[in-house]
Amino acid sequence: xxxxxxxxxxxxxxxxxxxxxxxxxxxxxxxxxxxxxxxxxxxxxxxxxxxxxxxxxxxxxxxxxxxxxxxxxxxxxxxxxxxxxxxxxxxxxxxxxxxxxxxxxxxxxxxxxxxxxxxxxxxxxxxxxxxxxxxxxxxxxxxxxxxxxxxxxxxxxxxxxxxxxxxxxxxxxxxxxxxxxxxxxxxxxxxxxxxxxxxxxxxxxxxxxxxxxxxxxxxxxxxxxxxxxxxxxxxxxxxxxxxxxxxxxxxxxxxxxxxxxxxxxxxxxxxxxxxxxxxxxxxxxxxxxxxxxxxxxxxxxxxxxxxxxxxxxxxxxxxxxxxxxxxxxxxxxxxxxxxxxxxxxxxxxxxxxxxxxxxxxxxxxxxxxxxxxxxxxxxxxxxxxxxxxxxxxxxxxxxxxxxxxxxxxxxxxxxxxxxxxxxxxxxxxxxxxxxxxxxxxxxxxxxxxxxxxxxxxxxxxxxxxxxxxxxxxxxxxxxxxxxxxxxxxxxxxxxxxxxxxxxxxxxxxxxxxxxxxxxxxxxxxxxxxxxxxxxxxxxxxxxxxxxxxxx
Length: 551
Ligand code: HEM
Description:
- The chain is of the alpha+beta class.
- It has 3 domains: 45-139, Immunoglobulin-like, CATH 2.60.40; 154-439; 446-549, Macroglobulin (MG2) domain (Immunoglobulin-like, Sandwich).
- The protein has 12 helices and 18 strands.
- It has helices at residues 2-41, 154-183, 189-218, 228-236, 238-258, 262-281, 292-321, 325-357, 362-365, 367-398, 403-428, 436-444; strands at 51-55, 60-62, 68-73, 78-85, 91-93, 98-100, 103-107, 115-124, 130-139, 447-453, 456-463, 468-478, 489-494, 503-506, 508-509, 515-521, 525-533, 541-549.
- It has a 5-stranded mixed sheet with strand order 2-9-8-4-5. A 5-stranded antiparallel sheet has the order 10-11-12-16-15, with no helix packed on it. It has a 4-stranded antiparallel sheet with strand order 1-3-7-6, with no helix packed on it.
- Helix 1 packs parallel to helix 6, helix 2 (154-183) packs across helix 7 and helix 10 packs antiparallel against helix 11.
- Protoporphyrin IX containing FE (HEM) is lined by residues 168, 280, 284-286, 299, 302, 306, 310, 345-346, 349-350, 352-353, 356, 379, 382, 420, 423-424, 427, 430, 435.
């Protein structure tokens, strides 16, 4: 008996050695390929587009109907839909809009009725997240209808959320499971079945997520799910790229999961694993954040680390349960690898967190921040459970502990998996929350207004365009654009709601011909602004209008 076992002991050690050599080779390829793969995905670093200004301005009352509408965003956008709702509520789609980087401009139908009109827009930012909104303006007098019409479409939001969650499960439990099979332990049949199921679920999630993205991008209702336009719109966004790479990764994964192991199976599993990292690095506000040479590899690494950890949990539990030597060997190999994986996971997560949140207050005064806080709470619990497993149960189970101890370990792994599901559900909410970095950048965007009164015109700019201390500047000219050179300019800002007293500041002429003044506009909203042009009461002229101050 012993001789036989001595020979097989050596073979097992050689096999184990080859296994970890293969695992090491796979990790090495992943790390070396990383910068090149991510550079291929890099786009111009962008945030989450927000509307900076509109012509006519939001809530503006015009004497005559405009001929063109112009929307300016905080970054270049892709226009998905644009419509105009009349005071009667009748809505027409506006065709032929010109998109020039950050500006969207379109001619409006002639004979616009008196009353309030709503421009409704849906655009997609570089991070693939659709943004919708509206601008109200009135011809003659405000009529109070139509509404903004940008209430969230809950059925579509639920479809976006659930398809993202299913995609995560396919990537992490399905493809992650393959990494376990290739690097830790060839699959037991039960584990292989589970991995196949999650790979199929992931593959099914791809078309659903594509249509959901398209519906959200177009602002279409769930009824348009099977419309080719919805799918085309989804594919046009960078999330379409994520889904394309994910689909290929799931197919490679399924091929590996149906092959009986061997070198080809390991290579296919490795490619599928790399593809999982690439897919999430291809879109999303973390990947689109500057500096992309850091954020895209960080999302790639974060995804691979999550996939390896989460994907190992189920097969490991099944391997341990049997109480066989293979299960103990798998546990030892997993325990040896996981500290490095967690290091990569936490390091990449912290980097992304710092890039996205920037100011600690944003953790508690933004929806994104609260999602991160909730996630970190759950992840801390998860790490506690994992630590308990590692330090109180692993030595015993790896040493051949009895069924009761093994069952306790499997139970803890079950709790880890339940927590992972919660973490992924919480993370899927990030799809609906612009990162603080984007809100801060949007808030820093200037607010611009064009004032015309009598023979004078002025372009007034507030930096930043949000409530608080601002630097106001004005470029003055006649209405036919001949620059003027008055002896003095005074800025007067009045809050129509009377929440704060008017703000009056004498302007100073700057080298570039602009008049500038520092002022404090403590409340957001639509402010009256006028410029007193001239230096004595006799020849004083006034040019006035309104300007939007953001929160
Ligand atoms: C200390 C640990 C961690 C930190 C600091 C962290 C932080 C982050 C941050 C800041 C992002 C970028 C989100 C964005 O702006 O789009 C992110 C993405 C993500 N994290 Fe973590 N994370 C950690 C651990 C985990 C764990 C344990 C899991 C799963 C079990 C996880 C799952 C995810 C997923 C699925 C994404 C989204 C990737 C995407 O769709 O682009 N994270 N994480």
